[in-house]
Amino acid sequence: MELEAALTAQVGSKPPEQVTELVLDTCKLASTALAGLEKFSNLTRLTLNGCSLTSLEGFPQLDNLKSLELTDNQLSEGLEALQDAGLLALTRLSLAGNRFASLDSLEPLTGVVMLNDLDLYNCPVTEVDGYRQSIFDMLGNLKYLDGFDADDNEKDDEDDDGDGDDDLLSSEVGDEDDDDLGEDDEDDLGESDLGDEDDLGEEGSELGEEGDDDGGEESDGEEGEEGDEEDDEDEGEDDESETAQASKRQRR
Predict the structure, then answer these.
(1) pLDDT tens digits, residue range 124-133?
(2) Domains of the chain: which residue ranges?
(3) Residue 92: pLDDT band with limits 50, 70, 90
(4) DSSP-derived pairing of the beta strands 45-47 and 21-23
(5) Cβ count near 1 (within 10 Å)
(6) Which residues contact 61 (CB under 8 A, 6 or more apart)?
(7) What Cα–Cα distance (Å) separates residue 246 from each residue in 232, 235, 237, 238, 242?
(8) Does the chain have fewer CB atoms within 10 Å around its N or its C terminus?
(9) What is the pLDDT of residue 33?
(10) Distance of alpha carbon 12 from its chain centroid, rounded?
(11) Could you read off the pLDDT of 205-234 as tens digits, one per residue?
């Protein structure tokens, strides 16, 4: 695809200064075409992978550019163009799959002062004795080379996108808050249920005591009535006995 067609497809009618990312992989580019990208002054990411580039001459000054991918081109020198462009914000550069064969050809990268992630995978220079240590010594701010740090620790995915960490913490914090709320609700419900059970137990106990008192009073009343009836019967029998005895005396 030609450069102009690729730009039209991605940008459309948007003003160039509002464009922050361009993916121009496999576009047919002449080195002179790179200068036309200068109007995209707020670019933070630019990819030109597989564009058959042999030179970076005329590379535009992009003050906000942070990530530049030039993978699988035909570059073997000319990195001074990046130094001249004053890419002061550039932190990540991929030159993998190019033709850089010597450490000297990479020395202009010392002018890219913020560079901390460099990829030279599958370039002939990676076969040079002491290659890794030499690159780390040359580029004092470099943290990762070909995906590994100076101690051969692999780069974390989070280092490619710092915003990802903020979103995970916020989600975790949100999940933790939800969990805490859930636990509080369960505790409150549990305490409420226990309180209701205690109230019911106390009411039941009071009702039981009232029942016992009423039952006791009724029982005592019934026993008293029965005792009175027995006394009346005994007195009646005594009266009858005395009457009979008096009748006998009269008969005699």
Answers:
(1) 999 999 999 9
(2) 3-156
(3) very high
(4) parallel
(5) 12
(6) 38, 85, 86, 87
(7) 21, 17, 14, 13, 6
(8) C
(9) 83
(10) 35
(11) 443 444 444 444 444 444 444 444 444 444
Give me the residues paired with residue 144 across strands: 117
How far is residue 228's CA from residue 233's CA, in Å, rounded to a whole number?
Answer: 9
The domain 3-156 is classified under which CATH number: 2.40.50.100, 3.40.30.10, 3.80.10.10, 3.40.50.300?
A: 3.80.10.10
Both structure tokens of 54: 């042999």
pTM across the whole model:
0.64
H/E stretch holding 221:
helix 163-251
Instruction: Measure the CA–CA gap between 34 and 134, rounded to whole angstroms.
Output: 31
What does the alpha-carbon distance between residue 110 and residue 105 come to, in Å, rounded to a whole number? 11
For residue 110, the 8-state DSSP code is G
**Is residue 117 helix, strand or coil?**
strand
Are 48 and 22 in contact by the 8 Å Cβ rule? The answer is no
